[in-house]
Amino acid sequence: MRRQPASLRNRSMSDAEDSLQDSFISHLIELRDRLLRSLIAVVVVFLALFHWARQIYELLAKPLLAALPKGGQMIATEVTTPFLVPVKVTLMVAFLISLPYVLYQIWAFVAPGLYKHEKRLALPLVVASVVLFFLGMSFAYFLVMPIVFHFIVSFAPEGVAVMTDIGKYLNFVMTLFLAFGTTFEVPIIVIVLVKMGFVSVQKLREVRPYVIVGCFVVGAIFTPPDMLSQTMLAVPLWLLYELGVLVASLMTRPRAEAAGEEEYRPMTAEEMDREFDSLEKENQDIPKP
User: Fold this and answer.
1) Whole-prediction pTM value?
2) What is the 3-state secondary structure (H, E, C) of 146-176?
3) What is the structure's pLDDT at 40?
4) How many angstroms separate the CA atoms of 282 and 262, rounded?
């Protein structure tokens, strides 16, 4: 076989490197454009909502204000806090409203590099993760925050006026939203781990006692130091884990039944010996030329 001249090989390698470099630069340009579109979308929504920044913050503060005793109020301990805190809340709301468009831009950038079966799995998981995150935030706002605030305010000693700084209140609420939003992602995490083969459904069921303990540890870390709020995070976290295990078992079982195959198990020593004996006999029966 005739070898290709060195000059032609070097030229081919140079062309391949140039093509790879051009492809990399085009991907960077596309990534920049999609990030810029996402940023513009968030800014446009923020500017549209800026006029109602005070009302948006009042809506966020409603659970605490409802729990305060008659005449109770919130305070601002810094000069710029009355302006910056409503602006931060409005920016957060603008990002949440723009999130579907932002996720679309991310999907449009990533999707061309995925296989068909990966697209079928990834798109429903992305949509479900967004819905679950919003459900976690709603759970924290409508159920957890009113109960926790009433519980905390009721423990205030006689003669102590409960007046929370609006900046610290925002940090507290953001921590709760992030904790509960992430907690509601547990079913998605469990399904992905099972579908990618990192862990089996049977193993997830076996470690259930450790998961329950871990749920209460997570609740103690990411919630205020009271047993009520810790339990209100730990119990949904455990139930969502069980939901993820159930959905993962339902997603894996039909595939095995449709294929009509049993789950894989390693061959025993006797089975391997029989297989080798069969192969050796077949080789002996083959006539030699």
Assistant:
1) 0.74
2) HHHHHHHHHCCCCCCCCCCEHHHHHHHHHHH
3) 95
4) 27
